[in-house]
Amino acid sequence: MIVIAVAVVVTGAVALAQRTRGAQGSRGLKRRFGPEYERAVARHDGDSQAAERELAELVERHGGLRERELERTEAERYEARWAATQEHFVDAPREAVGEADRLLAELARARGFPDGERYEEQLSALAVHHATHVQGYRHLHHVARNGSDTEEMRTAMIEGRALFQELVGASSGRSAGRSTAGRS
Protein backbone atom coordinates (compact mmCIF):
# COMPACT_ATOMS: atom_id res chain seq x y z
CA MET A 1 0.00 0.00 0.00
CA ILE A 2 2.75 2.42 0.94
CA VAL A 3 4.58 1.69 -2.32
CA ILE A 4 1.43 2.42 -4.34
CA ALA A 5 0.81 5.66 -2.42
CA VAL A 6 4.41 6.77 -2.99
CA ALA A 7 4.14 5.91 -6.70
CA VAL A 8 0.93 7.96 -7.04
CA VAL A 9 2.49 10.94 -5.23
CA VAL A 10 5.66 10.75 -7.36
CA THR A 11 3.65 10.44 -10.59
CA GLY A 12 1.52 13.42 -9.59
CA ALA A 13 4.58 15.49 -8.72
CA VAL A 14 6.22 14.65 -12.05
CA ALA A 15 3.05 15.55 -13.97
CA LEU A 16 2.72 18.83 -12.07
CA ALA A 17 6.38 19.70 -12.69
CA GLN A 18 6.04 19.02 -16.42
CA ARG A 19 2.87 21.08 -16.64
CA THR A 20 4.51 23.98 -14.75
CA ARG A 21 7.66 23.78 -16.88
CA GLY A 22 5.51 23.79 -20.04
CA ALA A 23 3.58 26.84 -18.88
CA GLN A 24 6.80 28.67 -18.03
CA GLY A 25 8.23 27.72 -21.43
CA SER A 26 5.11 29.05 -23.09
CA ARG A 27 5.29 32.32 -21.16
CA GLY A 28 8.99 32.57 -21.94
CA LEU A 29 8.36 32.12 -25.66
CA LYS A 30 5.51 34.64 -25.60
CA ARG A 31 7.73 37.14 -23.84
CA ARG A 32 10.73 36.49 -26.10
CA PHE A 33 8.86 36.53 -29.40
CA GLY A 34 6.02 38.95 -28.67
CA PRO A 35 4.10 39.53 -31.91
CA GLU A 36 6.04 36.73 -33.62
CA TYR A 37 4.53 34.30 -31.13
CA GLU A 38 1.02 35.33 -32.13
CA ARG A 39 1.98 35.13 -35.80
CA ALA A 40 3.28 31.58 -35.32
CA VAL A 41 0.10 30.53 -33.52
CA ALA A 42 -2.01 31.98 -36.36
CA ARG A 43 0.18 30.21 -38.94
CA HIS A 44 -0.56 26.95 -37.09
CA ASP A 45 -4.33 27.63 -37.07
CA GLY A 46 -4.41 28.37 -33.35
CA ASP A 47 -2.34 25.35 -32.30
CA SER A 48 -0.10 26.97 -29.69
CA GLN A 49 1.82 23.76 -29.03
CA ALA A 50 2.82 23.46 -32.70
CA ALA A 51 3.78 27.16 -32.74
CA GLU A 52 5.84 26.72 -29.57
CA ARG A 53 7.66 23.72 -31.06
CA GLU A 54 8.49 25.81 -34.13
CA LEU A 55 9.70 28.77 -32.07
CA ALA A 56 11.70 26.54 -29.72
CA GLU A 57 13.40 25.04 -32.79
CA LEU A 58 14.27 28.55 -34.00
CA VAL A 59 15.79 29.35 -30.61
CA GLU A 60 17.74 26.10 -30.74
CA ARG A 61 19.02 26.89 -34.25
CA HIS A 62 19.73 30.63 -33.87
CA GLY A 63 19.77 31.36 -30.13
CA GLY A 64 23.53 30.98 -29.87
CA LEU A 65 24.21 33.47 -32.65
CA ARG A 66 26.45 36.26 -31.39
CA GLU A 67 25.78 39.61 -32.99
CA ARG A 68 28.88 41.39 -34.17
CA GLU A 69 29.26 44.99 -33.07
CA LEU A 70 29.65 47.60 -35.80
CA GLU A 71 32.51 50.04 -35.67
CA ARG A 72 31.27 53.59 -35.13
CA THR A 73 32.26 54.66 -38.66
CA GLU A 74 30.59 51.58 -40.12
CA ALA A 75 27.35 52.39 -38.23
CA GLU A 76 27.54 55.99 -39.46
CA ARG A 77 27.91 54.80 -43.07
CA TYR A 78 24.80 52.63 -42.70
CA GLU A 79 22.91 55.55 -41.17
CA ALA A 80 23.94 57.84 -44.06
CA ARG A 81 22.87 55.21 -46.59
CA TRP A 82 19.49 54.82 -44.88
CA ALA A 83 18.98 58.60 -44.84
CA ALA A 84 19.82 58.75 -48.57
CA THR A 85 17.35 55.91 -49.22
CA GLN A 86 14.62 57.80 -47.36
CA GLU A 87 15.36 60.91 -49.41
CA HIS A 88 15.27 58.84 -52.61
CA PHE A 89 11.77 57.68 -51.64
CA VAL A 90 10.35 61.11 -52.53
CA ASP A 91 11.32 60.79 -56.20
CA ALA A 92 11.34 57.01 -56.66
CA PRO A 93 9.46 55.14 -53.93
CA ARG A 94 9.63 51.70 -55.56
CA GLU A 95 13.41 51.90 -56.03
CA ALA A 96 13.88 53.26 -52.50
CA VAL A 97 11.95 50.34 -51.01
CA GLY A 98 14.18 47.93 -52.91
CA GLU A 99 17.26 49.77 -51.67
CA ALA A 100 15.98 49.67 -48.09
CA ASP A 101 15.31 45.93 -48.35
CA ARG A 102 18.84 45.28 -49.65
CA LEU A 103 20.35 47.60 -47.02
CA LEU A 104 18.58 45.79 -44.17
CA ALA A 105 19.79 42.43 -45.50
CA GLU A 106 23.33 43.78 -45.76
CA LEU A 107 23.23 45.32 -42.27
CA ALA A 108 21.91 42.09 -40.76
CA ARG A 109 24.71 40.15 -42.49
CA ALA A 110 27.27 42.67 -41.17
CA ARG A 111 25.92 42.11 -37.65
CA GLY A 112 26.47 38.34 -38.02
CA PHE A 113 23.10 37.07 -39.19
CA PRO A 114 22.83 34.64 -42.13
CA ASP A 115 23.31 36.17 -45.57
CA GLY A 116 20.34 38.01 -47.09
CA GLU A 117 20.53 35.70 -50.11
CA ARG A 118 19.03 33.14 -47.73
CA TYR A 119 16.18 35.47 -46.75
CA GLU A 120 14.07 32.94 -44.81
CA GLU A 121 17.06 31.83 -42.75
CA GLN A 122 18.06 35.44 -42.09
CA LEU A 123 14.49 36.30 -41.12
CA SER A 124 14.32 33.34 -38.72
CA ALA A 125 17.54 34.39 -36.99
CA LEU A 126 16.35 37.99 -36.76
CA ALA A 127 13.05 36.78 -35.28
CA VAL A 128 14.95 35.08 -32.46
CA HIS A 129 17.03 38.17 -31.63
CA HIS A 130 14.83 41.10 -32.75
CA ALA A 131 11.29 39.72 -32.62
CA THR A 132 9.57 43.04 -31.95
CA HIS A 133 10.77 44.58 -35.23
CA VAL A 134 11.24 41.66 -37.61
CA GLN A 135 7.71 42.09 -39.01
CA GLY A 136 8.83 45.44 -40.41
CA TYR A 137 11.58 43.73 -42.40
CA ARG A 138 9.15 41.05 -43.55
CA HIS A 139 6.72 43.74 -44.74
CA LEU A 140 9.44 45.77 -46.45
CA HIS A 141 10.77 42.66 -48.22
CA HIS A 142 7.29 41.69 -49.37
CA VAL A 143 6.56 45.16 -50.76
CA ALA A 144 9.99 45.32 -52.43
CA ARG A 145 9.34 41.98 -54.18
CA ASN A 146 5.66 42.40 -55.00
CA GLY A 147 5.12 46.14 -55.33
CA SER A 148 2.30 48.13 -53.85
CA ASP A 149 0.84 51.61 -53.77
CA THR A 150 2.85 54.55 -52.45
CA GLU A 151 1.15 54.59 -49.04
CA GLU A 152 1.89 50.91 -48.48
CA MET A 153 5.51 51.48 -49.52
CA ARG A 154 5.77 54.41 -47.08
CA THR A 155 4.38 52.25 -44.28
CA ALA A 156 6.84 49.47 -45.12
CA MET A 157 9.74 51.93 -45.03
CA ILE A 158 8.69 53.17 -41.59
CA GLU A 159 8.29 49.63 -40.25
CA GLY A 160 11.63 48.55 -41.75
CA ARG A 161 13.32 51.59 -40.24
CA ALA A 162 12.50 50.33 -36.74
CA LEU A 163 14.60 47.19 -37.28
CA PHE A 164 17.31 49.25 -38.98
CA GLN A 165 17.51 51.57 -35.97
CA GLU A 166 17.61 48.66 -33.58
CA LEU A 167 20.44 46.96 -35.50
CA VAL A 168 22.50 50.13 -35.87
CA GLY A 169 21.63 51.62 -32.48
CA ALA A 170 22.23 48.44 -30.53
CA SER A 171 25.60 48.03 -32.19
CA SER A 172 26.80 51.59 -31.88
CA GLY A 173 25.72 51.86 -28.25
CA ARG A 174 23.71 54.97 -29.03
CA SER A 175 20.01 55.42 -28.65
CA ALA A 176 18.36 54.50 -31.94
CA GLY A 177 16.12 57.54 -31.62
CA ARG A 178 19.14 59.87 -31.86
CA SER A 179 20.54 58.30 -34.99
CA THR A 180 20.47 60.02 -38.37
CA ALA A 181 18.20 57.24 -39.63
CA GLY A 182 15.57 58.21 -37.07
CA ARG A 183 14.83 61.49 -38.79
CA SER A 184 11.91 61.55 -41.21
3D architecture notes:
This protein is an all-alpha fold and 184 residues long. 77% of the residues lie in helices and 0% in strands. It has two domains: 2-62; 72-182, no CATH class. It has helices at 2-33, 35-43, 48-62, 72-91, 93-110, 119-129, 134-146, 150-172. Helix 3 (48-62) packs across helix 6, helix 5 crosses helix 7 (134-146) and helix 5 (93-110) packs parallel to helix 8 (150-172). It is elongated and about 85 Å long. It starts with a helix and ends in a 12-residue tail after the last helix. 33% of the residues are buried. Mean pLDDT is 80; it is low at 16-24 and 172-184.
List keywords for this structure.
coiled coil; disordered C terminus; Secreted protein; 2 domains; 184 residues; 0% strand; mainly alpha
Query: Uncertain spans, ≥5 residues at pLDDT below 50?
Result: 16-24, 172-184
Intertermini distance: 75 Å
Count of distinct strands: 0
The overall pLDDT, averaged over residues, is 80
Class by SSE composition = mainly alpha
Radius of gyration: 21 Å
Q: Which range does the strand content fall in?
A: under 5%
Integer tally of domains: 2
Largest sheet: none
Order of helical and strand elements: HHHHHHHH
Share in helix: over 70%
Give the overall shape. elongated
How many separate helices? Answer: 8
Q: Which helices and strands occur, and which strands form pairs?
A:
Layout: H1 2-33, H2 35-43, H3 48-62, H4 72-91, H5 93-110, H6 119-129, H7 134-146, H8 150-172
Coiled coil: 41-68
Protein name: Secreted protein
Keywords: Coiled coil
